[in-house]
Amino acid sequence: MIGDRLKTIFTRAAAATGASLVATQAMAQDAATSVLGIGLMSPWILAGAAVAVPAIWWLSRNNPPSPRIESFPSMRLLLGHQTEEVKPDTMPVWHKVLRAAAAMAVIAGLAGPLLDPEQPLPGSSDEPLMLVVDNGWASAENWQERQEAVAVLLERAEREGRQIIILPAALPEDGQDLEMIGPVDATDAQRIFGSMAAQPWPVDHEDALTLLQNSGIDNAAAVYWIGNGLASDGTLELASALDRIGDVTYIDSLDDYNPKVLSQPNESALNMTVEVERSYADRAEEVTLQAMDDAGYVLGAVDIVMAAGDTVATAVFDLPEEIRAQVTRVNIAGESNAGATLLVDDNWRQRPVGIATNPNELVTSPVLRDTFYLESAMAPYARLHSGNIDELLSRPLAVAMVPDDTDLSERDMARLAQWVEDGGMLVRFAGPDLAESSGDELLPVDLMYGNRTLGGSMSWSEPLSIATFDRESPFYGVDIADDIEVTRQVVARPDGNLRERTWASLSDGTPLVTAEQRGEGHIVLFHVSSNAKHHWSNLPLTGTFVNMLRRVVDYSSGVTGVTEGFESLAPWQTLDGQGRLGTPSAAAEPIDAAKIEAGAIGPRTPPGFYGDETTRLAYNLSDAELSFSPLPSAGAMGVTRETLQTEGSNNLTGYLLLAGLLALGVDQGLRAFQNGGRRRRSGSESNNKKPAPTPAGI
Where would I find the H helices in 337-449? Predict the structure, then answer.
């Protein structure tokens, strides 16, 4: 039956004027596939079987077994010798079959058989195939799988002699414009695609559409779109343009992978928080986030469950301040791409804190300066800056601390008020100057001017301690030293809002720390002095004071007005498509405030760290304006949608050639075994026979 089909194929191929060898092979492959599920890349080689098999059979018939070897003694040379004629056709049938099978295996192997061969590619072999590749960040997770799928496709194209056109959708690393590659043969296309890498920035379907429209290509045998399962600006328009060129098959791995992006933490929280966003929410999914340091050690992990229907979830890392200060990145465990990596800079790990100084302060000992205890308390946990108000607000700050002896002009007050409205955290401390002043608007509560003395010869009470912090207070959980004593403070004027604005109180209920939100920021007032020289309290000498200040910094909104006075920073370490930090490419440029505001993620401004080892700014993929939505249905796009297939036809050539060689080896081994057996039997028979009597007279 197979022979009849092959005969029909060859007859039709010979009758077709100008039929190419490629077409003949395709027809033979299709015929064989319909019979046995095996295709042949060189079916004409099977014609040799018509000559080779009969020849092997004839040689086997006329190749008699090796003669038996007898002992040489002359008197016994003829004794017991076999007189029957040895016929050459006494070779066993299985031996002949083994040799014939070896020959058939070699011949079939040379014919290039394929197990489960794919159907021929669409269109004529004269028409090129177009390969559109989404090589952005969302493809990095399974980039190896995509390369294998494209290799299978290009192997089919190579067998059929097809030309390939490649259209990448993400800008190249060198910062040049998108370029269309081809037409090239399938071998060159495999080399080109093998050298491509997933980039750490999004694809640009609008740019790819423009390139396609300007290319002049209006026809292709078929279009294969290796997608990432996400829609962006221009996706539908690009699909429509490709459909006018040829039938579009969209290939992705949506069933196995759901791209996710880590966004910037909520800086106003007391703990480190990270948001996880995904595009598809059709099923529940468990995600593990890991906080890591520069060396790659995991400092903390959080498991969250994204329920079906949820596209955003929040992870909270409850880490000690000492550990949190070492965090430089957060990763999604098991995922390796720029979206699943969130870099952490000093603005998160150690927030910039400014301490206002008084240039006219005349002190001989550092311990007597109003800023001494503030600097000592915050130095291990924050990046400190000092100077007047103009100098402090000229740089990005999370918190500004103003001691009592700082002279604030009307201009300073106005600048601080606006800075607080924009999200700054202003922390003030009481003292003799504030106790005697009036009309200060940068206070969270109204004061009863004139200080309150607790203790002393004219007092009716003893020095007071600090009451336990309420659960609603940012100071909740801070240990209160037993030896804290407050002897003097400024007193808040009672009103209906005083209780909700009180963060800490003395043991008699008098407010010790009050706060008020102004716009996006806060104003916090410690009703005691920031030093011990005025003898208002010994609070600045205790660890409780340090922890209270740290809680205030944690409660702040982070860096505000980051673009004001922001200097250009050169790229220090940048992310690749797999989310790994490395040396910036030659195309990477310094980043400035305008680029940050525009969210310009690309080869010129890749995600990574900018600055240097001491001062670095984290620029993440989530800082860009991402189009992060599910892909429309295949019907809406006008495409056929498939999943990645990394396995193609299995070429049986090597297996059949190996089987033929093994069969020949078995044949030779059996012949050697038979010959050895004959020798042993011959010797045994000779030894067992008694010597014939010697005739008389000899």
Answer: 346-349, 372-378, 389-393, 410-421, 432-436
Distance CA 74, CA 97 (A): 41
Beta strand pairing call for 272-278 and 312-317:
antiparallel
Question: Is residue 9 helix, strand or coil?
Answer: helix
Q: pLDDT tens digits for 121-132? A: 777 778 889 999
At 611-660, the pLDDT tens digits run 877 677 889 998 887 877 888 888 888 888 887 665 545 566 666 677 77
Secondary structure (H, E, C), 296-357: CCEEEEEEEEECCCCCEEEEEECCCHHHHCCCCEEEECCCCCHHHEEECCHHHHCCEEEEEC
The closest alpha carbon to 674, from 69, 83, 84, 99, belongs to 69
The pTM of the full predicted model, rounded to 2 decimals, is 0.60
> Distances in Å between the alpha carbon of 494 and those of 390, 446, 498, 500, 525?
34, 8, 6, 12, 15
Computed on alpha carbons and rounded to an integer, the radius of gyration of the chain in Å comes to 43
How far apart are the C-alpha atoms of 657 and 664, rounded to whole Å? 11
CA dihedral 152, 158, 160, 162 (to 10 degrees): 110
The CA distances from residue 403 to 95, 535, 599, in Å, are: 105, 15, 38
Give residue-wise pLDDT tens across range 455-476. 543 344 678 899 999 988 999 9
Does the CA dihedral 622-627-630-634 come out positive or negative?
A: negative
Number of neighbours of residue 679 by Cβ within 10 angstroms: 13
Write phi, then psi, for 74 (nearest 5 degrees).
-65, -35
Enumerate the H helices of 438-521 as residue ranges: none
Q: How far apart (Å, rounded) are the C-alpha atoms in residues 599 and 596?
A: 5
Tell which residue, 158, 230, 229, 145, has the closest CA to residue 187.
Answer: 158
- The amino acid occupying position 508 is D
